[in-house]
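Design job #97: recover the sequence.
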């Protein structure tokens, strides 16, 4: 797996920050008269420099998510031993490249590049300076192709864009491709990078984002508060996370970090931004993933919540988990990585999956940071404030739950050994 996150670049850094409950939320480095928001969780220097991943000319001609996605993808391929020995970051050898595909999960894709080009086009005399690559960068599927080209992967090159469920749906799509025998391995990348005033303002109009005035002396690190009674919306984050999925009969020599064994997806068919209050379809997606994995409900150990820190979603997701798991819901330990990295939109499913695997492999459950004032409507175990220890030398069964605008629900079922 690989990670480029607001709290660390590379799996060791990401895992260490998760264990410590460190936050990547900080004050905005820009301002706009329309903005009420004062914080976000960007991937920024000195932790990440796109010029170390791509030539300077390519950094200028591509959306910001591309170098992030490439860095995470290369880390995953190197860890799995798919790249030539002693050549980290090199393209996969041709004879192997034909049996490995890629699927990118992204919500906004190259929206940053598109907005910049629109601004350029409408500026006086600017139309002649619009980039040749405006169309290719505005089409999400081309971004998946950009990754496949640079990684040398010759299997299917797909893109899934289903809002916040994008990268978990991408993993489900990869699982189906592997089960069909279409390929031997699939690289799943979740990436989004659109921390800018236009996006923040759009979220403010929807009333889903935190607008506390953290520039007035409060600690920005406390802004994202999933399940806390004082929460007032999510914090916009960004980043890229990748996992390499291999068929068991074609596994590389690298040690397996876990197994993706189930997937469930449904649609509320209710509202474009609000979940159906009865949460029946979210619960059905959870049960579908459990059934696909062949588990008993009572065998679920851990649950990575969508946990955005919006008033409606946190309470509704809690209700869905109770509906899906019944009395066992109170025995399942949960968490939300968004408390530390903000909400990376379409990348959040992979961010949560990688965080969960980091935790199990490291013998801990990442905390839901900033959870200090429990909401009576959110009364399950979310691992408040401090990481919890896991018993070693046993296999854990965990769920990764995602909800998305457009009434979508997406759930992954995973097994991993501590």
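Job complete. Output follows.
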């Amino acid at each position: 797996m690989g990670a480029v996150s607001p709290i660390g670049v590379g799996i060791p850094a990401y895992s260490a920050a998760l264990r410590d409950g460190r936050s990547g939320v900080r004050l905005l480095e820009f301002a706009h008269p329309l903005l009420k928001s004062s914080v976000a969780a960007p991937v920024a220097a000195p932790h990440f420099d796109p010029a170390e991943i791509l030539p300077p000319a390519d950094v200028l001609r591509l959306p910001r998510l591309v170098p992030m996605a490439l860095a995470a993808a290369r880390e995953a391929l190197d860890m799995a031993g798919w790249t030539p020995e002693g050549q980290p970051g090199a393209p996969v050898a041709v004879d192997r490249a034909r049996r490995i595909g890629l699927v990118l999960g992204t919500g906004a894709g190259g929206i940053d590049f598109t907005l910049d080009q629109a601004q350029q086009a409408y500026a006086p005399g600017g139309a002649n300076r619009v980039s040749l690559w405006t169309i290719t960068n505005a089409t999400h599927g081309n971004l998946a192709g950009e990754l496949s080209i640079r990684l040398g992967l010759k299997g299917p090159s797909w893109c899934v864009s289903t809002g916040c469920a994008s990268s978990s749906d991408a993993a489900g799509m990869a699982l189906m491709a592997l089960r069909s025998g279409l390929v031997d391995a699939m690289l799943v990348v979740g990436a989004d990078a659109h921390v800018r005033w236009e996006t923040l303002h759009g979220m403010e109009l929807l009333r889903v984002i935190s607008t506390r005035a953290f520039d007035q002396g409060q600690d920005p690190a406390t802004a994202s508060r999933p399940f806390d009674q004082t929460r007032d919306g999510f914090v916009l984050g960004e980043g890229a996370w990748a996992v390499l999925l291999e068929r068991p009969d074609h596994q590389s020599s690298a040690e397996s970090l876990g197994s993706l064994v189930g997937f469930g997806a449904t649609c509320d068919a209710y509202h474009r931004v609000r979940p159906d209050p009865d949460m029946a379809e979210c619960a059905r997606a959870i049960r579908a993933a459990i059934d696909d994995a062949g588990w008993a409900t009572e065998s679920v150990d851990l649950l990575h919540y969508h946990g955005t820190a919006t008033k409606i979603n946190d309470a509704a997701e809690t209700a869905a988990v109770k509906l899906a798991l019944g009395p066992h819901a109170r025995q399942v330990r949960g968490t939300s990585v968004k408390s530390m990295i903000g909400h990376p939109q379409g990348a959040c499913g992979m961010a949560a999956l990688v965080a969960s695997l980091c935790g199990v492999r490291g013998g801990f459950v990442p905390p839901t940071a900033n959870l200090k004032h429990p909401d009576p409507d959110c009364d399950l175990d979310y691992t408040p404030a401090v990481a919890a220890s896991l018993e070693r030398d046993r296999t854990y069964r965990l769920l990764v739950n995602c909800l998305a605008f457009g009434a979508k629900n997406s759930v992954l079922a995973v097994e991993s050994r501590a």
